[in-house]
Amino acid sequence: MSTVAPAVPEAPARPRKPAPSKGIIAAFVVAAIFTVWAARSIEFTLMPLFTNLDNGWEIIHQFLNPSWGFIFRVWDAWVETIAIAIIASFVGVVLGLVFSFMASTVTNRTRWSYRATKVFLSVVRSLPDVAYVLIFVALVSIGPLAGILALIVFNIGIAAKLTSETIDAVDTGPLEAADASGAGTIARARWAVLPQILPNYLSYCLYIFELNIRASVVIGIAGGGGIGQVINVQFSRFAYENVAAITVAIFVVVFVIDQVSQQLRRRFV
Amino acid sequence: MSTRDEAASRPRQPSKARATATWILLLILVGGAAWLSDARWGQITGIFTDGGRYFRLMTEGLLQNPFSDPWAGYWTRAFDAMIESVHMAWVGTVLGAVLSIPFGFLAARNISGAVTVQLTRGVLNLIRAVPELVFVIVLMLPIFGFGPVAGALALGVGAIGTLGKLTAEALEGVDPGPVEAAKASGSGRLAVLRWAYWTQVLPEVMAFWLYRFEINVRASAVLGIIGAGGIGQLLSQLFSKRAWDQIGITLLVIIIVTVIVDMVSGAIRHRIIGGGKAKKDRVRDDAVEVGL
């Protein structure tokens, strides 16, 4: 045994820091340029926050004194909003279920109709809800009916997308069993697929109902009835204290419905 | 034994009473809603009487030579307005993304204290419950006036809610290995957060940002109708004039640009999450999760 310590093997040199990938640098440069371009084209500025606060202050002051009584004076509009959301969600998710069966290769074995459904759904989803309200207002005139029809179309798009993705991922066992026992297209969709996706589907339904309540402001402002219409009228009359009261109430309604529906959804999935 | 015979017989169908009751309740609910909604159902015929005519007018607008005089102007105006909407959505997303980072860290249970987490989550839930349109009406228009800046700020504030929550959830799901390694090598608290936590969640979080951008492109159209500029404003002007040929052009522009944005952003998201050889099945559900 020697007292001479064996030559300490030289500690491996610290590895060189890898150079950042060129792709990432390029991506960040592009993102930065796009941000600057976008900000300049909309003339983005935070200055009004300092210069215009006094101008805005008067309005904000009105906002801070909401006239709570107004919430109950427009009781009918609240009922209308909830009713619109219920009908539109129900019809939308039922039709959406049919479309989602057509938009998955698992349940739709006809190539061309699968493709056509996919394209149709992506076009439906690419238009914002406002566009549908405006179209239906032109067709059936201002009122809750326009809101209901617009939301139905909008809901079909979301329900079909979410559900068809769930259908894509179902267990193939029951499908084979159904095929082996000679089930037709509708029978295998109903008995081999539907029971598997039902929990997710119900949870999407509740989610869509939530979205519809949230959308009620937009719907009404565009002419589709409900509480949004009240906001629009009060806003154009500069009755900010009424707008503020409705806003707070909408917030509470959305929050409560969100919480209830989240509890329910947790039970389904 | 007789039990064997019973086993061989077809099992009895489970009771359907509950399902039937649920259906009856649901139909009563929907029927009641149809009655209470105050909708004039008779006017639904308008779809069949006017629908075809309006559709033909819209198609006529689309079929005109887009380089001849009035039509070229319509196409340019629609594209300009849509680009403005996309810009508004992008600025809003960038603002929301930047602001949501601290909220995400404050709302992650494995990083912040219990009280901070509860408080931050409360704020995030609050933001998520308010529709963007309300942000515009309440906060932005009085101070920033009509225009896309108010819209971008509203989208930004609105995005904090979802992005903050999703970032927090991603941070809670990190692999503890790198965190331990960083601590063992004597890293400070900030270094641990930056190099052990943030690096792990960055791809996922960036995918959330892009997904939010896709949502914001649609939302920015909505904000336009209350005067926040962009395609929504153009659309509501055209509808009040009933200029169907121009409406047709504008709707087509919205569809084209939205589909392109979705495709580009979707491809980048798949690349970020799936790495070089993007695995489709891994990524397919991310939109669903984010959406919920």
In short:
The complex is a heterodimer of chains A (269) and B (292). With 269 residues, chain A is mainly alpha-helical.
Please characterize this protein's 3D structure.
The complex is a heterodimer of chains A (269) and B (292). Chain A has 269 residues and is mainly α. Chain A has one domain: MetI-like (MetI-like fold, Orthogonal Bundle). Helices cover 76% and strands 0% of the residues of chain A. Chain A contains 12 helices and no strands. Chain A has helices at 22-41, 48-51, 53-63, 69-73, 75-102, 111-126, 129-140, 144-168, 173-180, 185-221, 227-236, 240-268. In chain A, α7 packs across α8 (144-168) and α10 packs parallel to α11 (227-236). The N and C termini of chain A lie far apart (69 Å). With 292 residues, chain B is mostly helical. Chain B has a single domain, classed as MetI-like fold (Orthogonal Bundle). Chain B contains 13 helices and no strands. Chain B is extended, with a radius of gyration of 26 Å. Chain B starts with a helix and ends with a helix.
The tally of helices of chain B reads: 13
Structural class of chain A: mainly alpha
- Form type of chain A: flat
CATH architecture of chain A: Orthogonal Bundle
What number of structural domains do the residues of chain B give? 1
Cα(first) to Cα(last) distance of chain A is 69 Å
Helix content of chain A: over 70%
H-E order of chain B: HHHHHHHHHHHHH
* Main sheet characteristics of chain A: none
Helix content of chain B: over 70%
* CATH class categorisation of chain B: Mainly Alpha
CATH domain topology of chain A:
MetI-like fold
Low-confidence stretches of chain A: none
Report the count of strand segments of chain B: 0
Give me the CATH fold name of chain B. MetI-like fold
Q: Mind telling me the CATH superfamily name of chain B?
A: MetI-like
What is the subunit organization of this protein? heterodimer
Greatest chain-chain interface?
A: A-B, 74 and 71 residues
**Class by SSE composition of chain B:** mainly alpha
CATH secondary-structure class of chain A = Mainly Alpha
* Count of spatially separate domains of chain A: 1
